[in-house]
UniProtKB/TrEMBL annotation:
Pfam families for the chain: ABC_tran
GO MF annotations, alphabetized: ATP binding; ATP hydrolysis activity
Cross-referenced PANTHER family: CARBOHYDRATE TRANSPORT ATP-BINDING PROTEIN MG119-RELATED, SUGAR ABC TRANSPORTER ATP-BINDING PROTEIN
InterPro entries: AAA+_ATPase (IPR003593), ABC_carbohydrate_import_ATPase (IPR050107), ABC_transporter-like_ATP-bd (IPR003439), P-loop_NTPase (IPR027417)
Domain named ABC transporter: residues: 6-243
Name of the protein in its database record: ABC transporter ATP-binding protein
Organism in which the protein naturally occurs: Saccharothrix coeruleofusca
Keywords: ATP-binding, Nucleotide-binding
Amino acid sequence: MSEPILELRGVNKSFGPVHVLHDIDFTVRAGEVTALVGDNGAGKSTLVKSIAGIHPIDSGEVVFDGKPVTINGPRDAAALGIEVVYQDLALCDNLDIVQNMFLGRERGKAGMLDETDMEQAARKTLTSLSVRTVKSVRTQVSSLSGGQRQTVAIAKAVLWNSKVVLLDEPTAALGVAQTRQVLDLVRRLAEQGLGVVLISHNMNDVFEVADRIACLYLGRMAAEVPTKDVTHGQVVELITAGRSGELGIARPESATI
């Protein structure tokens, strides 16, 4: 088992009187895919946005590469090597692949864009991820399929020497063949030593690519276990009831008073 690259310890987050995250412990390891699952309203998006620096945590500790860190905003997260691929992908249809991958981080000197350098870097990144579905890095994003767009968004995230990549529902609304391409890419990210967090409602995808599964229930971490140690049914019970047999949140009668 690899060392944790990212740890959340006792993290809490509230929005006014609504306590969304309750004493969350969460671990991401380099070279592994950790699936973050939970019902709608369980707190998945809030947890991801807290890691990304969009929502500052109220209390608790964030440890990155073994050192406590404070993430005050998305720039702090990016500086550490944390990148997020949101469900809407945040790509510009009117720009090509290179322009999208370097949007806001363009390379150049003397006030001029270095198009050749950016194009080479984009092509190198796609090649390193064994992406073969994109014929040209100068293709307009508007002409790409859903799977190709997801691929570009993931490549954009790993272009910046990322150490942790969070993927929000990367296979949502994709066909069978495109889902296969994206899942293969998710595994390749882990094989390259990145810590990958996969947020998904698709249990088949989760059990296929995840090394560990973290189950959120009403803002609490019900369980974080190796995928091989749980069944599909147990995960569904953890998501819907917070408990499955001896696994999950302690029942009130067994809790320490």
